[in-house]
Amino acid sequence: MTIGILGGGQLGYMLALAGYPLGLHFRFLDPSPEAPVGRIATRITAEFSDRGALKKFAQGLALVTYEFENVPVEAAEYLAERVPVLPPPAALEAAQDRLKEKQLFQKLGIATTEFAAVADRNALDSAVQQIGLPAILKTCRMGYDGKGQWILRNAEDVSRAKNELPHEHSASHTKRAKGEGPEQTAAFILERFVPFTRELSILAVRGRTGETAVYPLIENHHRGGILRLSLAPAPGLEPAIQRMAEDAARRVSESLQYVGVLAIEFFEHQGRLLANEMAPRVHNSGHWTIEGAITSQFENHLRAVTGQPLGATNGIGCSAMLNLIGEVPDSSEVLTVRDAHLHLYGKTPRAGRKLGHVTLRAASPEQLASRLGELPSFFHRPDYCLDAALSRAASLRA
Length: 398
Ligand code: AMP
Hints:
Blueprint: E1 2-6, H1 10-19, E2 25-30, E3 42-45, H2 51-58, E4 63-66, H3 73-80, H4 89-95, H5 98-107, E5 115-118, H6 121-131, E6 135-139, E7 149-152, H7 155-162, E8 175-176, E9 182-183, E10 188-192, E11 198-206, E12 212-214, E13 218-223, E14 226-232, H8 239-255, E15 260-269, E16 272-279, H9 289-292, H10 297-305, E17 318-325, H11 331-335, E18 340-344, E19 354-362, H12 365-373, H13 386-397
Parallel strand pairs: 1-2, 1-4, 2-3
Antiparallel strand pairs: 5-10, 6-7, 6-10, 8-9, 11-12, 11-13, 11-15, 13-14, 14-17, 15-16, 17-19, 18-19
Helix pairs in contact: 1-10, 3-4, 12-13
The chain binds adenosine monophosphate.
C-alpha cells in the first residue's frame, strides 16, 4: 500500500520511518528540492497548486495525508476527488485561519483566549477597546513559530502596528461559505495576552471508525515563538486538566469527522485551559512518543488513516524532548548520555531551522533530572531551556 504525503519535511520523514515496519510505502510531494524525505522515499518536487503534478502524484495511491497544515485546501480537495484524503480537507481549512479556528473552539464550548477580528487598520482601535491591553496581534493565515505576531503593550505599540495593517478591508476577505450566510474572515486577529502558568498540548488520534485515543498532556517551552523543550507527561498535572484537554480534543475531532493525529495547544491559566491553536497533523510536541510512548504519534497517525486498530498511547516513564534549532551538537557527545536518542533530519543548517531533536527517556523524574544534567555543554545555554527542564523534573520529585 502506497500512501501519499503532502509536505516533505521532518514530520513526513518520521511518518515514513514509522510506516516502513508496517509494510507501507510512501510518495511525497513538496515544492522544495531540499525536502528531507528525498533521502528515504520517492519525492515529487512541485508546487501544491500544480494540478498536473497532483494528478501524477495521486496515481496508484491508497490515500493521501499531509504533514504541513498550509497545504492549499484546493489541492487537498482536488486530490480528494481521486483518492481518500485524511484528515478531511475541512480540518485543514479550519486550522489554516486563526479566526476560524477560535470560532470553532467557541462553537464547541472550548474555552479560548479572548479575541476580536481585525480586518484593517481602522478596525484595530475598536478591537483594542474590546480586548484591552496587553494583547497580541496575529496574522490569521500563514503564521507559524511566532511569525506574523506583534505584542501590543501600549498606545504607541498600537499605532506602530497600524502601519503593518492594510488601509481597507479587501472584499476578497469576505467569503460566502457554501449554503450559509457570509462567513467572518479577516486578515488579522487580536488576542488578549494571557499571563499563563504554562503551555500544554494534547495529541489525540481518531480512527476511521471513530475510535479515539489520547496521549498524556505535554508541557512545552518556547523561545522566540519556537518550541524548544517538551516534557511528557506534563509535570504535576491535575487529572481534571487532562480531562479538559481530552474533552476538547474529542469535541474538535468529532465535529470535523477527523481521522489521524490532531494536536491542540493550550495555555494553562488560573486552573483552566484556554485553547490557543490546533494542528491537523502530527506535532513537534509529540516527538517524544517515538521512544517515550507505547505507540508513537507517527505510527498511530498511519494506523488511523489506513483503518488499522489504534495503538496504546500510554507514556513509558517520563520524557524530555529538546529541539535542535539552527545548529546541531556533536553526535557522540549526545549519544554518550544513557537513554538519549538523537534524531537528525538531514537539513542544511540555517538560523531558526529545526534540524533535529533529542529525546531523553527515564524511568523516574529523578533519573530524568540526572540524564538532563549529563547533556553536553551545547545544551547548557538559556535557549535550550535546560534549567526549566531541570526545575520541572525536580518539582516532580517533590
Ligand atoms: P502561536 O503562533 O499562536 O502558537 O504563538 C506562539 C507563541 O506565542 C505561543 O506558544 C505563546 O508562547 C505566545 N502566545 C501566543 N498567543 C498568546 C497569547 N494570547 N497570550 C500570551 N502568549 C501568547
